[in-house]
């Protein structure tokens, strides 16, 4: 664990990888550190944002260093099922890249459980990592200016669902009718860090 | 603050019959509703947002007896015209437009509040006793221009509901705070998480040269122009969390100083952070003004 400075109100904790991030994030949300107002996981880091009126950065750093990360990132997270119509415009390209046919891409995508590692890019956009074989799919060489909401996509080692229309460079393999982000729902974001996801095919 | 009994009282704000509302007649270049923002939701990809100049927004609320993070109007470069539906107590802070400033005033029913062009500073805050009472989104009434959360920016014809006062008037006539300065502004800088991605020359250039605030700046951040800050390390950085005040260096070498609507995570190295208490002043900088950083970002 490396603790890096991030100004007068935050600390950035750098870790070896996603599993360590999920473990530390789970521990810090289960037992919050006093004066920490936000905990933001990412691919290799966890940002701790403090309220300077309540605590100091030195105390927070000490508390984080004494935190025991939760092992087994996939224990007990809520399971969300997302029905998907696999008719994305990039499905054939993804299949070609993986050297399989489209049906095999769908079989692999629905055949594993995924875990939300972290969110970013837009409110409610979760970066999903598979329990099984890792995926490696390049981004599109030119991003789309408009990706429709509900698009199910792949890029790098992650899968994701676009919460709303936005530009995007991920490979689109399908679409779901489930609103992954809805400000009038509690919780607004379906795909929160630690949530497990199972994709099912709608024919 | 001067604390001798104010001539403005809470009674003026609650006369029966009239509608506690403000009708927007003109907005100027950009007027949004802002409050304390959406803290604690970064893990969902939801940024903090809130007033760009938090100190000015809180002061405007204190002057009218509101909780410090009640919703106010953030007016960019003046131009706002409002008409009241009832007698309301208002106060403006931040960039000084015209008339009473840093002082509560009664705006009689049917009268207009008109903000001209401020001589210095960029953002004026208008607090109204009782607070702007538009519907909150995810716990806040702030407009986040990056994520699109919160109410849309104001348009002429909008009618803004005003809440009921919850506390007595503070009895303050005037808050003697300085106006945001024009010209060059100096703020304190601290090390960022990726200062070690830059050679000593870049770290030195950051704190020894002047940075021009460009016209590409907005509530998300100030795009600065100056010496190109070259990296000493190649390669990609996995996106990582950041907060307002971050000085991020994209491949162009021209840093971005993130403000209220900063993204939750970013994929370019953050060389330094502006001291949190100084970030508010950065939210008052206009295109063409210069910014200097005092301090050091060398890795500890």
UniProtKB/TrEMBL annotation, chain A:
Pfam families: CT_C_D. It comes from the Bacteria. Gene3D superfamilies: 3.30.1360.40, Cyclophilin-like. GO terms for molecular function: ATP binding; hydrolase activity. The keyword Nucleotide-binding applies. Residues 1-191 form the Carboxyltransferase domain. Keywords: ATP-binding, Hydrolase, Nucleotide-binding. The keyword ATP-binding applies. PANTHER family: 5-OXOPROLINASE SUBUNIT B. This is Sensor histidine kinase inhibitor, KipI family. The lineage of its organism: Bacteria, Bacillati, Actinomycetota, Actinomycetes, Geodermatophilales.
UniProtKB/TrEMBL annotation, chain B:
Keywords: ATP-binding, Hydrolase, Nucleotide-binding. InterPro entries: CT_A_B, Cyclophilin-like_dom_sf, PxpC. The keyword Hydrolase applies. GO terms for molecular function: ATP binding; hydrolase activity. Residues 43-300 form the Carboxyltransferase domain. Residues 1-20 are annotated as: Disordered. Transmembrane segments: none annotated. PANTHER family: 5-OXOPROLINASE SUBUNIT C. This is Biotin-dependent carboxylase uncharacterized domain-containing protein. It comes from Geodermatophilus siccatus.
């Amino acid at each position: 664990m490396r603790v890096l400075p991030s100004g007068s109100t935050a600390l950035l904790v750098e870790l070896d990888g996603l599993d360590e991030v999920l473990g530390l994030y789970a521990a810090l949300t289960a037992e919050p550190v006093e004066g920490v107002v936000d905990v933001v996981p990412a691919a290799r880091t966890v940002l701790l944002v403090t309220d300077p009126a309540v605590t100091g950065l030195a105390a927070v750093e000490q508390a984080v260093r004494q935190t025991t990360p939760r092992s087994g990132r996939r224990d007990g997270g809520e399971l969300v099922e997302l029905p998907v119509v696999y008719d994305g415009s990039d499905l054939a390209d993804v299949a070609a890249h993986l050297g399989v046919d489209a049906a095999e891409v769908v079989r692999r995508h629905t055949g594993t459980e995924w875990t939300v590692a972290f969110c970013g890019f837009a409110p409610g956009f979760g970066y999903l990592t598979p329990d099984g074989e890792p995926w490696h799919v390049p981004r599109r060489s030119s991003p789309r200016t408009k990706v429709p909401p509900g698009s199910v996509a792949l890029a790098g080692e992650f899968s994701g669902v676009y919460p709303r229309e936005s530009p995007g460079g991920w490979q689109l393999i399908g679409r779901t009718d489930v609103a992954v982000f809805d400000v009038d729902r509690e919780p607004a974001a379906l795909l929160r860090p630690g949530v497990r996801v199972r994709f099912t095919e709608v024919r | 603050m001067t604390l001798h009994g104010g001539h403005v009282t809470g009674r003026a704000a609650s006369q029966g019959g009239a509608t506690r509302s403000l009708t927007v007649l003109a907005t100027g270049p950009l007027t949004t509703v802002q409050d304390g923002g959406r803290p604690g939701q970064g893990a969902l990809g939801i940024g903090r947002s809130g007033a760009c100049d938090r100190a000015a927004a809180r002061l405007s609320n204190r002057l009218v007896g509101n909780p410090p993070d009640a919703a106010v109007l953030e007016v960019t470069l003046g131009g706002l015209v409002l008409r009241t539906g009832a007698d309301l107590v208002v106060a403006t802070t931040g960039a000084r437009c015209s008339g009473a400033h840093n002082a509560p005033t009664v705006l009689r029913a049917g009268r207009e509040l008109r903000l001209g062009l401020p001589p210095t500073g960029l953002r004026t805050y208008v607090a109204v006793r009782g607070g702007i009472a538009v519907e909150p989104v995810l716990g806040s009434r702030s407009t986040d221009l990056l994520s699109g959360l919160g109410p849309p920016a104001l348009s002429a014809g909008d009618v803004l509901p005003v809440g009921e006062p919850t506390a007595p008037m503070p009895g303050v006539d005037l808050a003697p705070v300085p106006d945001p300065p024009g010209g060059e502004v100096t703020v304190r800088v601290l090390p960022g998480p990726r200062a070690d991605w830059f050679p000593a020359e870049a770290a030195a250039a950051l704190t020894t040269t002047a940075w021009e605030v460009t016209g590409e700046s907005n509530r998300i951040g100030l795009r600065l122009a100056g010496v190109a800050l070259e990296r000493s390390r190649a390669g990609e950085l996995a996106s990582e969390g950041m907060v307002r005040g971050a000085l991020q260096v994209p491949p162009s070498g021209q840093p971005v100083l993130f403000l209220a609507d900063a993204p939750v995570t970013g994929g370019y190295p953050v060389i330094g952070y502006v001291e949190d208490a100084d970030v508010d002043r950065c939210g008052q900088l206009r295109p063409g003004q210069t910014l200097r950083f005092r301090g050091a970002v060398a890795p500890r």
